[in-house]
């Protein structure tokens, strides 16, 4: 089966290799480009305040990588009781790879039916302490061709979780560590994408924003013969709205995605 991997380029290689090892033909067509924000002052300040956070919520593995890249020399995460929150296995894995002790990580269990803010909140709600702030590490959208001029320092992501925290009288702070933008596809990539809309390929969609970028990149494309696997119900709905004819749903775990692919064979 031909599978189109739409994750950012930095994440796609692992998925492509695993899919090809399983006998599939995998094509990487990133639907989101990610870059560090040009000004890191707010990030450095967030690190300076590390002991004051009761928890730091990372919206994605990319958030972990960009945040931990600025970790001050001599600051060991295990020295403080600050918790690290992750919504899914990819973010949890990134935290572990960055050296965060497993005992400090809160995330939905591997057996969870879904990986999102709601699942995370179920696990941490009983332990949050009113009055002690939580930091949310997230990205923002780049709205011009020049990322240096396009940083929205308020950031976006996990607003539902913020609302739950505020309702529990927990102050919420934010730091933006990366910015997302639509990819600049080459003509060859656009041709590959258009062909994959009708040749039986299966698109792996892991972000509603990625679906929006796909629609923007090929605004006239007919998706009535296209197939995809989405890793959340909200992403699946976005794919249906664009016009995908066959939409499967899977947890964002490689084994589950592989099983979903088998069901489409």
Commentary on this structure:
The N and C termini lie close together (7 Å). The longest helix has 13 residues, at 9-21. Residues 144-157 have low confidence and may be disordered. This protein has 265 residues and is α/β, with parallel strands linked by helices. Helix 3 (61-68) packs parallel to helix 4 (89-97) and helix 8 runs parallel beside helix 9 (233-242). 36% of the residues lie in helices and 20% in strands. It has 2 domains: 2-32 and 185-264, Rossmann fold (3-Layer(aba) Sandwich); 35-181, Rossmann fold (3-Layer(aba) Sandwich).
- CATH topology name of the largest domain, in short, is Rossmann fold
Mean pLDDT: 89
Please report which band the strand proportion falls in: under 5%, 5-15%, 15-25%, 25-35%, 35-45% or over 45%: 15-25%
Spatial sequence of strands, sheet with the most strands: 3-8-7-4-5-6
Helix count from the secondary structure assignment: 10
Q: Segments where pLDDT lies below 50 for 5+ residues?
A: 144-157
* Broad shape: elongated
Measured distance between first and last alpha carbons: 7 Å
């Amino acid at each position: 089966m031909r599978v189109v991997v739409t994750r950012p380029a930095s994440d796609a290689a692992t998925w492509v290799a695993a899919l090809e090892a399983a006998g599939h033909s995998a094509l990487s067509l990133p639907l989101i480009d990610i870059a560090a924000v040009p000004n890191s002052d707010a990030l450095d300040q967030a690190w300076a305040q590390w002991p004051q956070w009761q928890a730091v919520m990372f919206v994605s593995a990319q958030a972990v990588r960009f945040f931990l890249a600025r970790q001050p020399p001599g600051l060991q995460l295990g020295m403080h009781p600050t918790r690290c929150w992750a919504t899914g296995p990819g973010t949890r894995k990134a935290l572990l790879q960055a050296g965060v002790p497993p005992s400090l990580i809160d995330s939905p269990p591997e057996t969870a039916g879904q990986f999102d803010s709601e699942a995370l909140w179920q696990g941490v709600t009983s332990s949050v302490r009113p009055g002690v702030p939580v930091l949310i590490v997230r990205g923002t959208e780049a709205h011009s061709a020049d990322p240096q001029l396009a940083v929205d320092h308020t950031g976006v992501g996990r607003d539902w979780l913020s609302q739950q925290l505020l309702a529990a009288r927990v102050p919420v702070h934010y730091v933006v560590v990366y910015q997302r933008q639509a990819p600049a596809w080459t003509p060859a990539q656009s041709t590959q994408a258009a062909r994959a809309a009708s040749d039986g390929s299966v698109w792996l969609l892991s972000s509603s924003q990625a679906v929006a970028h796909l629609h923007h990149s090929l605004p006239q494309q007919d998706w009535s013969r296209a197939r995809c696997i989405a890793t959340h119900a909200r992403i699946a709905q976005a794919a249906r709205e664009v016009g995908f004819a066959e939409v499967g749903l899977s947890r964002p775990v490689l084994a589950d995605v592989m099983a979903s692919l088998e069901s489409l064979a």
